[in-house]
Design a protein that fits this description.
Layout: H1 2-36, H2 57-64, H3 69-88, H4 91-101, H5 132-143, E1 151-157, E2 161-165, E3 172-176, E4 182-186, E5 194-197, E6 201-203, H6 213-216, E7 219-224, E8 229-237, H7 250-255, E9 260-264, E10 270-284, E11 288-297
Antiparallel strand pairs: 1-7, 2-5, 3-4, 6-9, 7-8, 8-11, 9-10, 10-11
């Protein structure tokens, strides 16, 4: 019986020391691999990063890279809510929100300077103490035409965007002299080397017109006439001399040959308007002639 228990103790002893030997060998091999490893090898293909899922489903989709249609819609709703707060919050409300949600609010940089600017705090600023919305209403009132009392909804800048070089056919002109074949010549390539696209997109029956109002317009104002009717005001600088164009002129017919107008708002939403008629033309501040069209706003134009 004693022999039996001695054998059991011996078996346990051998197993335990065998396990220690295996552990020692494993640690030794690991140490050898680490010593042999290249310290400049920063390849992270074998690394795995784990993180806790975010409680906000929109932010979780953002971190996970899931940018589907619903995510895009929710994302823009957040932007709109933030923009609404930014426009209507007082300087005090902005400071409170920044103090609550921004870890660096009120803290100084290495030079002891604070860079926060929430609202109009400067005593010398013309809009001191106003919300951003109040300041925008004041600016809209200053820039709008005063020949009517319609509500001004939007002001769009129509500054052209350079998109690249012109097509080769755009820099070649074809002419025909009397009793002669066609002759081709390259026009001033520096004059036609660039192409421009305009934020305002206009569709018309005749696409071959040379006088396009969207290429002359500097600003586009949208006013609300009724529930769905809108007034579109094209601000054309006087340097283009459209004010001298008469109604029986072919240029006039080309400028009013408008069927549909499209423009993107600040969130990328596409706004569309079907044009009904030209209402009138007025001179504005000795700087622009304004062409006013009556239109109807199209629905569900968001193509995101």
């Amino acid at each position: 019986m004693l022999r039996f228990f001695q054998n059991i103790v011996l078996w346990i002893y051998i197993k335990f020391h065998t396990l220690l030997i295996y552990i020692g060998i494993s640690l030794y091999r690991t140490e050898e691999e680490l010593l042999k490893a290249n310290p400049n090898n920063l390849n992270e293909k074998d690394k795995k990063t784990t993180r806790k899922l975010h409680s906000n489903p929109i932010l979780e989709n953002f971190y996970a890279g899931k940018h589907d249609e619903k995510y895009t819609k929710d994302y823009y709703e957040i932007l709109k809510s933030a923009d609404k707060f930014k426009r209507n919050a007082t300087p005090f409300q902005m400071a409170v929100a920044a103090d609550k949600y921004t870890p660096f609010y009120g803290k100084e940089d290495k030079d002891g300077i604070k860079h926060e600017h929430f609202g109009f705090y400067d005593d010398k600023h013309k809009n001191k103490g106003k919300t951003l919305n109040d300041a925008l209403k004041k600016e809209y009132k200053k820039r709008r035409t005063n020949d009517d009392k319609y509500q001004l909804l939007y002001i769009f800048d129509n500054k052209p965007i350079e998109t690249g070089f012109a097509k080769i056919l755009d820099v070649i002109e074809k002419t025909q002299k009397e009793n002669a074949d066609f002759e081709y010549e390259v026009v001033d390539i520096f004059r036609k080397s660039k192409q421009y696209t305009f934020p305002i997109k206009v569709f018309r029956d005749n696409i071959e017109v040379e006088n396009k109002i969207e290429q002359l317009t500097e600003f586009l104002h949208i006013k609300k006439i009724g529930f769905e009717y809108r007034q579109l005001e094209f601000f054309v600088p006087l340097k283009f001399k459209t004010i001298d164009v008469q109604e029986d002129d072919e240029i006039f017919k080309e400028l009013i040959n408008i069927k549909e107008v499209f423009v993107n708002d600040e969130y990328g939403k596409l706004l569309g308007f079907g044009i009904i008629e030209l209402m009138k033309r007025i001179k504005y501040n000795n700087t622009h002639e304004v062409w006013k069209f009556k239109g109807i706003e199209m629905k569900n134009m968001n193509l995101n």
